[in-house]
Amino acid sequence: xxxxxxxxxxxxxxxxxxxxxxxxxxxxxxxxxxxxxxxxxxxxxxxxxxxxxxxxxxxxxxxxxxxxxxxxxxxxxxxxxxxxxxxx
Length: 88
What we know:
Shape: globular
Radius of gyration: 14 Å
Low-confidence stretches: none
Helix content: over 70%
Order of helices and strands: HHHH
Largest sheet: none
Distance between the termini: 37 Å
Structural class: mainly alpha
Strand content: under 5%
């Protein structure tokens, strides 16, 4: 986990694209496995969307607050669903 936070810091503080690529590479197997549940024709587009969302999370992750990466993504999901429910 420490390696992931260090890579995230480098992306945020130094705009280190190599660190960003490393993070995306680390998550790629999980993304591809998740995409097996979708239509073959849509997988490439959905992979790009997952990568964009991952980049957004990496750039906005506040490592000074003490959230783990997974806690932060769960918080974002919770905030998103709360906002979605309020809108409807």
